[in-house]
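Query structure, 415 tokens:
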């Protein structure tokens, strides 16, 4: 299961640098954000390979947060000089003034030396204490992340066991399945591949829409997983920019189709896969047109598990149907028998922020074709009617946004 977004086409250049070339030509359009992330990823790789001396690693780690920057500033400021300046800014009297300052400095040296020694000792103790405090805080942060990951996995496991028990009891007692279980049952019985071929569009069309997300994963600090990868459109895009990725899908037909293209795809449940992923093992998570197939409890767990599985600076992109557009209800929502319910962008933003993600934003895509939208009224020649027509057009725009707004949205967040 994967979907949409308008392709982001960039300007073509007359010549192209080799993919691995570090040189950027003068005057070229440069994505500064992507360049910074690529540099950060390279620094992280070299640090992991032990290519930096310990003192430089301390500076790199300290510079990544405000507390570390304050520590560096305190360390630099603690280096007092015992030798006062003896030069003068006035060239005419510089020699005389310099000599006088030197004599005064030597006379007062016996008086100030003990004070400076005490200040040196105090500053050194302050720096050492702050360094130990910051190290202890970072250790606590790592322990908290580890505990949080364990709790999230435990909650997921308990839910899984409860679900299996409830399913067993339900089948014995004739109880109905949950919406999520019913959705998975539909996907097992439906020819999902043929369904996508008819209702989603061609691979080229879907890949063109998903190109808009590609730049977010260019500097991913690890492997990127496409959860609900469908026919593998996004995995193919990742391969074009040399980003290692793999897919997960519950459909046997989809998995077979992807493997025919040489893609690494596993047939698994996406929640179970996230729960089993080692902490911090993923560089990015892409999930398009999947969450609307899950029960509400699984949607909540999805964000908690994604936060645990992602590495620091990893990117999460979750695309789904846009309930703010009524066109969604007349087109995509009810066409798929496996859809449980549409999900509101404010809800998914809340869940992402609650799980701990940073820089959470929402992107809208897949606009309705202009031919199917409300048209503006032409301005009349009669000047007396022009204010009325302008007011009508303004209201038509508001109605048009509700009726025919973008049919998809994506929550984009960073770990």
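Result returned for the query:
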């Amino acid at each position: 299961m994967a979907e949409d977004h308008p392709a982001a086409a960039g300007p073509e250049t007359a010549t192209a640098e080799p993919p691995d070339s570090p040189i950027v030509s003068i005057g070229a359009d440069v994505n500064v954000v992507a360049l910074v992330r690529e540099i950060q990823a390279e620094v992280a790789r070299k640090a992991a390979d032990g290519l930096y001396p310990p003192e430089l690693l301390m500076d790199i780690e300290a510079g990544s947060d405000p507390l570390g920057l304050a520590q560096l500033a305190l360390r630099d400021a603690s280096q007092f000089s015992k030798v006062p300046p003896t030069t003068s800014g006035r060239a005419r009297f510089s020699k005389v003034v310099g000599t006088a300052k030197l004599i005064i400095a030597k006379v007062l040296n016996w008086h100030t030396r003990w004070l400076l020694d005490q200040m040196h000792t105090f500053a050194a103790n302050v720096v050492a204490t702050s360094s130990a405090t910051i190290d202890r805080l970072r250790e606590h942060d790592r322990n908290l992340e580890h505990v949080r990951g364990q709790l999230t996995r435990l909650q997921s496991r308990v839910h899984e066991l409860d679900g299996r028990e409830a399913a067993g009891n339900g089948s014995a007692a004739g109880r109905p399945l949950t919406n999520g279980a019913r959705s998975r049952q539909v996907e097992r019985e439906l020819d999902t591949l043929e369904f996508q071929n008819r209702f989603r569009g061609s691979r080229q069309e879907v890949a063109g829409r998903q190109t808009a997300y590609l730049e977010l994963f260019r500097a991913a600090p690890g492997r990127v997983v496409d959860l609900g990868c469908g026919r593998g459109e996004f995995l193919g895009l990742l391969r074009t920019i040399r980003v290692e990725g793999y897919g997960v899908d519950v459909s046997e037909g989809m998995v077979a189709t992807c493997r025919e293209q040489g893609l690494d795809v596993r047939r698994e449940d996406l929640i179970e896969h996230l729960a089993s992923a080692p902490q911090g093992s993923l560089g990015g998570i892409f999930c398009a047109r999947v969450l609307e197939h899950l029960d509400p409890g699984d949607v909540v767990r999805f964000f908690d598990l994604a936060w645990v599985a992602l590495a620091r600076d990893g990117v999460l992109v979750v695309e789904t149907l846009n309930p703010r557009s009524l066109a969604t209800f007349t087109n995509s929502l009810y066409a798929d028998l496996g859809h449980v319910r549409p999900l509101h962008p404010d809800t998914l933003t809340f869940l992402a922020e609650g799980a701990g993600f940073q820089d959470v934003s929402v992107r809208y895509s897949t606009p309705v074709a202009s031919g199917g939208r409300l048209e503006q009224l032409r301005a009349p020649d009669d000047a007396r009617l022009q204010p009325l027509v302008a007011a009508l057009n303004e209201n038509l725009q508001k109605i048009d946004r509700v009726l025919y707004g973008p049919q998809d949205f994506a929550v984009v967040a960073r770990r």
